[in-house]
């Protein structure tokens, strides 16, 4: 592993594939040795103080109390350093430098170190680190920029990821040459993926979730859907239609899935299945008081103990769930998911990577071939057709906004081919508008769930033209 020093912290912005340096100046990097020394000093004092508190019979410290104590200790340390500097005839650090140093040390103790300032920026959507000093971000409005280094060396970057892994998620996750890949959920709900040993330099990718409690009304405000689609999708969820949300990378599938789930009645029992927990439906007990969030587990160092998402979907079928929600289908779990959807768990949902709504069925069939059941293509087509009712597909508009572009209704199967009608088709702006009327069965179910069929005959009430 190369311990590369930060080389070029200059910021640049990419526009339509071109790189244009901006004039924005990045804040000067603080010496990593100084931050680490203060972190270790405060951590040692914090441990002693916490043990003394426990020995005195006081209640265990909450995370907030622990941070407050650390901040108090750090203020004392910095005051001692300022006094020593004045005594020695040196100028102490100015207040701004002290505040910056305090933030960095607290980030190292409780946050994500050099990544924390990026995580604190609500306008940043994705963070990609290709070595400690090659850091790129993507903003919510589509802009891309290269920003300052997040660590002093690649070795420090790896240690930072290990520290995060040690305190994130529901189980310990290794990150070393024997386990060079790591996928965890961060405290703010973001998803971190890190890889080392099989790359020239360690790499970290963080996908932010700017809308952790999204609703369909939120999607309407964001411009992802229009009033007609809000009414249609709300009724589809309440009518217990099985829905697959599709789209490309970073298309907003998880956010839309979370928004669809917001239309589920609080009285229903939900079981979510994910490779790394992202949906966070269990974090909102008012909206979803009865939720079990299941997360896949990797094998241990002896190669044992692995629990796949397919295993978890099968487990969900034994947990009296009203609905099963699979965060992302990308393998053999498709069989278990379809069985869940077609065996009494109506209203279940999932996401899948696909470039169009029509391609979803090909992707599901390809995943089914990988399953241990080895279903023939004809049987796979019948299974998917009996399980999935609607496909909701996302695309990006020319100005970079994510929108619902297409909705397909599954009406049957002809051998291996799934037959569907495109109820909403994207126009030139990629926004989905009514194209083919729903089947009589679907329209009856939607109407019973509160959908006004007049929406389908009033184009002026949909997207602005």
UniProtKB/TrEMBL annotation:
GO MF annotation list: ATP hydrolysis activity
UniProt biased composition (Polar residues): 1-17
Protein name in UniProt: CpaF family protein
InterPro entries: P-loop_NTPase, T2SS/T4SS_dom, T4SS_GSP_E_ATPase
Renumbered residue ranges of the record's region Disordered: 1-31, 45-69
Family per record: Belongs to the GSP E family.
Pfam families on file: T2SSE
Domain Bacterial type II secretion system protein E: start-end pairs: 115-392
Composition-biased stretches (Low complexity): 18-27
Organism: Cryptosporangium phraense
């Amino acid at each position: 592993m190369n311990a590369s020093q930060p080389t070029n912290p200059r910021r640049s912005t990419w526009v339509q594939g071109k790189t244009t340096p901006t004039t924005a100046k990045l804040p000067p990097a603080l010496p990593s040795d100084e931050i680490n020394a203060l972190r270790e000093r405060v951590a040692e004092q914090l441990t002693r103080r916490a043990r003394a508190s426990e020995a005195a019979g006081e209640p265990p410290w909450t995370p907030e109390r622990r941070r407050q104590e650390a901040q108090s200790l750090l203020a004392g340390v910095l005051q001692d350093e300022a006094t020593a500097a004045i005594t020695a005839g040196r100028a102490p650090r100015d207040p701004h430098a002290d505040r910056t140093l305090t933030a960095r040390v607290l980030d190292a103790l409780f946050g994500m170190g050099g990544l924390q300032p990026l995580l604190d920026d609500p306008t940043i959507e994705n963070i990609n680190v290709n070595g400690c000093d090659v850091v790129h971000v993507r903003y919510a409005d589509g802009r891309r920029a290269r920003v300052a280094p997040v660590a002093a060396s690649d070795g420090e970057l790896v240690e930072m990821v290990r520290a995060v892994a040690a305190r994130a998620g529901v189980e310990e996750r290794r990150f070393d040459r024997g386990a060079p890949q790591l996928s965890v959920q961060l405290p703010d709900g973001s998803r971190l993926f890190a890889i080392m040993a099989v790359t020239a330099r360690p790499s970290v990718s963080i996908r932010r979730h700017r809308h952790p409690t999204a609703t369909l009304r939120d999607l309407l405000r964001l411009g992802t859907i229009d009033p007609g689609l809000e009414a249609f999708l709300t009724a589809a969820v309440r009518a217990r239609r099985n829905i697959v949300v599709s789209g490309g990378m970073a298309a907003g599938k998880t956010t839309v899935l979370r928004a669809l789930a917001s239309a589920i009645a609080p009285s229903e029992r939900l079981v979510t299945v994910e490779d790394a927990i992202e949906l966070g439906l269990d974090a909102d007990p008012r909206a979803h008081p009865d939720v079990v969030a299941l997360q896949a587990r990797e094998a241990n160092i002896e190669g044992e103990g692995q629990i796949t998402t397919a295993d978890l979907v099968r487990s969900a079928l034994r947990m009296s769930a009203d609905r099963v929600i699979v965060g992302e289908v990308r393998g053999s779990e498709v069989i278990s998911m379809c069985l869940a959807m077609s065996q009494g768990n109506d209203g279940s949902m999932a996401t899948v990577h696909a470039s169009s709504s029509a391609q979803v069925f090909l992707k599901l069939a390809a995943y089914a071939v990988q399953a241990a059941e080895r279903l023939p293509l004809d049987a796979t087509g019948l299974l998917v057709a009996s399980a999935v009712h609607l496909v909701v597909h996302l695309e990006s508009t020319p100005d970079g906004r994510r929108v619902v572009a297409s909705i397909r209704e599954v009406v049957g199967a002809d051998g291996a081919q799934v037959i569907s009608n495109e109820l909403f088709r994207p126009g030139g702006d990629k926004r989905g508008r009514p194209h083919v009327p729903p089947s009589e069965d679907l329209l009856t179910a939607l109407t019973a769930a509160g959908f006004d069929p007049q929406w389908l005959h009033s184009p002026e009430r949909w997207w602005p033209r």
